[in-house]
Specification:
Strand 1 and strand 2 form a beta hairpin. Strands 1-2 form a two-stranded antiparallel ribbon. The protein is mainly α. The protein folds into 2 domains: 8-75, Winged helix-like DNA-binding domain superfamily/Winged helix DNA-binding domain (Arc Repressor Mutant, subunit A, Orthogonal Bundle); 80-231, Four Helix Bundle (Hemerythrin (Met), subunit A) (Up-down Bundle), CATH 1.20.120. The chain has helices at residues 14-27, 39-46, 50-62, 80-104, 107-125, 130-150, 154-175, 185-196, 200-231, and strands at 66-69, 72-75. It comes from Chamaesiphon polymorphus CCALA 037. This is GntR family transcriptional regulator. GO terms for molecular function: DNA binding; DNA-binding transcription factor activity.
């Protein structure tokens, strides 16, 4: 029997399950930026031994969602300089993404993008809460990922997925102190209108303007947070 003659069938390992559970907790804000991560406590919560937790934390370190600070593992936090560099990467990748989506996105995908904008608009019309902030953050992620899917370039989607995880954690840092950083519905509308018209140049300009404006908001908020921490 050759290796190619039979696909291995097995459930996810405990390490894989622990990784997915911890990643989800980080990206949903259950585990907050800067929060200390203790193996024994996490193992108790997930009802597993420390070994899969340790392996999962190592994997999260490789994904830059967890960092080691003087021997202590913590959920990653980002500086204003980190934010600027992450946005530089987004500008480059999403330029390619939206240009390709103008040509390749299906009508169904364009409708889904519009639906995401409408959901965000309904949430913004209600009284803001911590829950609505996380809902808006998730819709923002879905909006940009749907555009990436519309590019029909799976390699580009994979690269953006790795970047989006870091961006979500970065945005959690800023939105808790100022939910207004998630007010992007008009900018998203501009991008959608260009996509609907299949106007690549207009779409690229709209994405660039949106990301530059978002970068300015996030960097400004991070600088204020850092100044407050330095003053303590």
């Amino acid at each position: 029997m050759t290796l190619s003659s039979r696909a291995l069938q097995r459930p996810q390992s405990l390490q894989e399950q622990a990784y997915q559970a911890l990643r989800s907790a980080i990206l949903s804000g259950e585990l907050m930026p800067g929060q200390r991560l203790v193996e024994t406590q996490l193992a108790q919560k997930l009802q597993v031994s420390r070994t899969p937790i340790r392996e999962a934390l190592h994997q999260l370190q490789q994904a830059d969602l967890v960092v080691e600070d003087r021997g202590v593992l913590k959920v990653a936090t980002f500086t204003s300089e980190d934010a600027s560099k992450l946005y530089e990467c987004r500008l480059a990748l999403e330029n390619v993404s939206v240009r390709a989506a103008c040509t390749n996105a299906s009508d169904r995908q364009l409708k889904q993008i519009e639906n995401l904008i409408e959901k965000a608009e309904k949430i913004l019309a209600a009284k803001p809460t911590k829950l609505t902030s996380f809902q808006l953050l998730d819709l923002d992620y879905q909006f940009h990922r749907e555009i990436a899917e519309g590019s029909q370039n799976e390699w580009l989607v994979s690269l953006l997925d790795r970047l989006f995880d870091k961006m979500i954690l970065l945005r959690i840092q800023t939105m808790l102190s100022n939910p207004a950083v998630l007010e992007v519905r008009w900018e998203h509308r501009q991008i959608y209108d260009a996509l609907l018209a299949r106007d690549a140049e207009r779409a690229v300009t709209a994405v660039r303007d949106h990301l530059i404006a978002s970068q300015a908001r996030v960097v400004r908020e991070l600088e204020q947070i850092q100044q407050g921490q330095n003053a303590v």
